[in-house]
C-alpha cells in the first residue's frame, strides 16, 4: 500500500505570499428596493406629463397641409406637397429629442441606474407620446373637414387636421431614445462593479 501524496497536516503558511483567496460564488445581484420602484414611478409620471409639451411643440412646428373647397368637394391645394410626411417627421424628431433629454436627466440624477429607472423611461416615453399625439390632434385644426370647409366657404384655403400616419413607429421613438441614451451613459460613465476574479485577491494584498 502506498502512502497518500497529500500530507495529513498542511504546510505552514509562507508570510511572503498572500493567502489563497476565499471561494467566490459570483454576484448575486442587488435586490430592487422600494425606493428604486418609487423613483421609476416618478420617472414614468414626469415623462408622461412632458408629453403635453411635445404635443404643443408638434402643433407649432409641424408643417400644415392646405386644403381648398369648391363647394362640392374638398381637395389638396398642393397635391405634390410633402406636408403630411413633414408632420410625422416633426413628431418623430421631437420625440427623439425628448427621449434623449429624459435619458440624460435620469442618468445625471441617479448614476447607478437600475431596472425600475429603465422601465420608467420606456413606459413614460410611450405614455408621453400618446399624450402628445392626443393633445396635438385636439389643439390642431378640427377633424371635421366638411364642416370646416362649409364654414370658411368655397375657394378659401384652410388647414387640414393634424394626423400621425406612422402610428406605432412614432410612439416608439421616445422610449427607444430614452433607454438607449441612459444605458449608454450608464455603461460608459456609471460606477463600475468589482471584478469577481480580482476582488478576492485585492482583499489580501499586503499594505
UniProtKB/TrEMBL annotation:
Biased composition (Pro residues): 7-25
Protein's UniProt keywords contain Cell division: no
Keywords: Membrane, Transmembrane, Transmembrane helix
Annotated stretches, region: Disordered: 1-29
Residues spanning the membrane: 41-63, 83-108, 115-135, 168-189
Name the UniProt record assigns to this protein: ABC transporter permease
Protein species of origin: Streptomyces termitum
Amino acid at each position: 500500500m502506498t502512502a497518500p501524496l497529500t500530507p495529513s497536516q498542511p504546510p505552514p503558511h509562507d508570510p511572503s505570499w498572500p493567502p489563497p483567496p476565499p471561494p467566490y460564488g459570483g454576484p448575486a445581484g442587488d435586490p430592487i428596493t422600494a425606493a428604486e420602484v418609487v423613483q421609476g414611478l416618478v420617472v414614468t409620471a414626469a415623462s408622461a406629463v412632458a408629453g403635453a409639451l411635445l404635443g404643443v411643440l408638434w402643433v407649432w412646428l409641424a408643417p400644415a397641409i392646405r386644403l381648398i373647397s369648391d363647394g362640392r368637394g374638398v381637395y389638396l391645394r398642393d397635391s405634390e406637397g410633402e406636408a403630411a410626411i413633414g408632420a410625422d417627421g416633426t413628431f418623430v424628431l421631437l420625440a427623439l429629442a425628448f427621449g434623449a433629454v429624459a435619458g440624460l436627466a435620469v442618468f445625471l440624477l441617479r448614476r447607478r441606474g437600475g431596472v425600475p429607472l429603465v422601465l420608467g423611461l420606456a413606459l413614460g416615453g410611450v405614455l408621453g407620446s400618446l399624450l402628445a399625439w392626443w393633445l396635438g390632434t385636439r389643439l390642431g385644426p378640427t377633424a371635421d373637414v366638411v364642416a370646416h370647409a362649409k364654414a370658411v366657404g368655397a375657394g378659401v384655403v384652410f388647414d387640414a387636421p393634424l394626423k400621425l400616419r406612422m402610428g406605432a413607429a412614432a410612439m416608439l421613438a421616445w422610449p427607444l431614445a430614452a433607454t438607449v441614451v441612459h444605458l449608454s451613459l450608464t455603461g460608459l460613465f456609471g460606477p463600475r462593479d468589482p471584478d469577481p476574479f480580482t476582488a478576492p485577491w485585492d482583499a489580501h494584498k499586503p499594505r
